[in-house]
């Protein structure tokens, strides 16, 4: 499929995390709603309250909506704003990860468990210990599961250095190294971190870390990992420049070397995606705001085939809105 397709038309959906479980494709998106919250750089207008999950047997087949899998009122530590989620599977159990502000308005990452990929999921009593900021992205290799996470501005990553909250949180100056997404190996039970989160360093063509002022290339949010032909592809959103970009490395921790853009700006402010192989082809899942007439907080998930060049670089997609 060379033309992008919307996932569903009856709900606003965003931030798609695509996972293949038991031969079926599952999409775990955010569920956008109209709340009347004012639009601001903090993202208060993204005031989502629950999640649905969708499945497909074939990429161009019927899309099944499995209904609400987790509601904000069912999370014991909840404050507000359920943002971009992710999922994982291990030993017949399914794990759903979600960023949510706690009762002090601090973003944490929560975990919830189910016996089925389509839920419903039961949230743990506490957020993952040591978690902060937003946008978990899950990657599994040889039985080890890694979480990538982080997001600046409304995602609060600028309030931390070395995994600790700092007094006055701001982005570094333009000439300083950019803030990095984080990567952490999960514990055996997939409910806690097994180690301190580490920086996902993105290097430029000269081997230097990207600078904070390099808004066309530096990480902003939507940290995702996939593997293609023995290489590790870290992909992400540049936020205020509205691009999806990627960098390639030799292991899940990096460092990663910046390689280019995956997707040019679409209708809407945010750009958030996942990349998934299904039945021998690769797909980019993303969202735009075209169906809502450009309302940034009412987005719709789309997907399109993703192709690679011979040298392993991704063929950039343009005009996908
Ligand atoms: O959906 C809320 C936030 O918008 C996500 O967490 C970000 O990645 C951006 O898409």
Short précis:
The chain is mainly beta and 321 residues long. Helix content is 0%, strand content 44%.
Strand-helix topology:
Elements: E1 5-6, E2 12-21, E3 24-32, E4 50-56, E5 63-71, E6 78-82, E7 86-90, E8 93-102, E9 107-114, E10 122-123, E11 137-141, E12 144-149, E13 160-161, E14 164-165, E15 181-185, E16 198-200, E17 202-203, E18 221-228, E19 231-237, E20 244-249, E21 256-263, E22 274-278, E23 281-288, E24 300-306
Parallel strand pairs: 17-21
Antiparallel strand pairs: 1-24, 2-3, 3-4, 4-5, 6-8, 7-8, 8-9, 9-10, 11-12, 12-15, 13-14, 15-16, 18-19, 19-20, 20-21, 22-23, 23-24
The structure holds beta-L-arabinofuranose.
Residues 14-15, 30, 46, 83-84, 134-135, 151, 221-222, 270, 272 line the site of beta-L-arabinofuranose (FUB).
Site (Important for catalytic activity, responsible for pKa modulation of the active site Glu and correct orientation of both the proton donor and substrate): 135
GO molecular function: hydrolase activity, hydrolyzing O-glycosyl compounds
Family: Belongs to the glycosyl hydrolase 43 family.
């Amino acid at each position: 499929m060379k033309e992008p397709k919307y996932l569903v038309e009856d709900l606003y959906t965003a931030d798609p995390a695509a996972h293949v479980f038991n031969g079926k494709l599952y999409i775990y998106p955010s569920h956008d709603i109209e709340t009347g919250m004012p639009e601001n750089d903090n993202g208060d207008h993204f005031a989502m309250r629950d999640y649905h999950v969708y499945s497909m047997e074939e990429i161009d087949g019927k899309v099944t909506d499995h209904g609400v899998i987790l509601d904000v009122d069912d999370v014991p530590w909840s404050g507000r704003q359920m943002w971009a989620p992710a999922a994982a599977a291990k030993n017949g159990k399914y794990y759903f990860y979600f960023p949510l502000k706690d009762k002090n308005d601090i973003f944490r990452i929560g975990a919830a468990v189910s016996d089925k990929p389509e839920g419903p999921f039961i949230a743990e009593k506490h957020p993952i210990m040591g978690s902060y900021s937003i946008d978990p992205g899950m990657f599994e290799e040889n039985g080890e599961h890694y979480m990538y996470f982080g997001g600046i501005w409304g995602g609060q990553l600028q309030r931390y250095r070395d995994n600790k909250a700092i007094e006055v949180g701001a982005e570094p100056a333009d000439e300083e190294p950019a803030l990095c997404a984080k990567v952490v190996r999960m514990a055996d039970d997939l409910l806690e971190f097994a180690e301190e989160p580490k920086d996902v360093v993105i290097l430029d063509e000269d081997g230097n870390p990207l600078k904070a002022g390099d808004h066309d290339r530096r990480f902003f949010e939507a940290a995702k990992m996939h593997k293609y032909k023995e290489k590790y592809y870290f992909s992400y959103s540049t936020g205020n420049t509205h691009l999806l970009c990627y960098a390639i490395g030799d292991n899940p921790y990096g460092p990663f070397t910046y390689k280019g853009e995956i997707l040019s700006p679409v209708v809407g402010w945010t750009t958030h995606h996942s990349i998934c192989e299904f039945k021998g082809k690769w797909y980019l899942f993303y969202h735009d705001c075209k169906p809502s007439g450009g309302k940034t907080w009412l987005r719709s998930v789309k997907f399109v085939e993703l192709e690679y060049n011979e040298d392993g670089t991704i063929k950039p997609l343009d005009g996908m809105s």
